[in-house]
Amino acid sequence: SQQGEEDPQALSIQEGENATMNCSYKTSINNLQWYRQNSGRGLVHLILIRSNEREKHSGRLRVTLDTSKKSSSLLITASRAADTASYFCATEETGANNLFFGTGTRLTVIP
Amino acid sequence: KAGVTQTPRYLIKTRGQQVTLSCSPISGHRSVSWYQQTPGQGLQFLFEYFSETQRNKGNFPGRFSGRQFSNSRSEMNVSTLELGDSALYLCASSPVLGSTGELFFGEGSRLTVL
Q1: Cα distance from A61 to chain B (closest Cα, Å)?
Q2: Neighbours of A19 (CB within 10 A)
Q3: pLDDT band for position A3 (50/70/90)?
C-alpha cells in the first residue's frame, strides 16, 4: 500500500493544550497536505506544504516537513473543543496523479 | 459558491444489487475524484474524471465504474454489490487535473450493503 501512516492513532488532550500528530510516508513526494474530517462527514483541506518547504503556518496550525526522514508533523496550538476530529495527511507522490491518504489521527479535545 | 454536493447521503442495498452515486462539483471545477473510506482500509482512491474522461484509476475491480457529464457532474456505479462494499464514498472536486492542489470534498454517500 502507498498509504502514509499517522501517529498516534488517537490523541486526547485538554482544551488549551497543544496537539501534535505525525505522518510518515514511503516514497518521494511533490507535496503533502493535511485534512480534517468531522465524524462521518467530508474532509476539509487545512494546509499544503511543498517538497521544497520545511515549515508552514496557518493560524493555529504549524506543519513541518522533513523529506530526508519522509515525515511530516501537524501542530495545533491552543486547542479548542471544536478541533475534535480526525486528521489525515495526504501525499502527492512523484509520478502519481492522485493523493494517497494516511490512516488518520483521531483527536479529542476535552473542554 | 456552492460546495460539492453528493446524493444520496445514505442508502441501504442488498448483496447483488447495483448502486449509482452522484456528485456535483463546485462550479468551474472540471476534475472529480472518488474515494472509498472504510474503517479497515482508510481512504482509497477509486478514479478521477476530468473533462468527461477517466484520467486515473485506483486498484478496484471492474464492478466499480464512473462517468462524467459535460457539466462536470459525475456518477459512480457499483454493480453486484458485496458486503465489503459498505463504506462512505467521498467525491472531491478540483479546478485542475491530478492532485497538485487542494481537493474540495463533499459530505459523502454512506452505503450499507446487507
Answers
A1: 16
A2: 20
A3: low
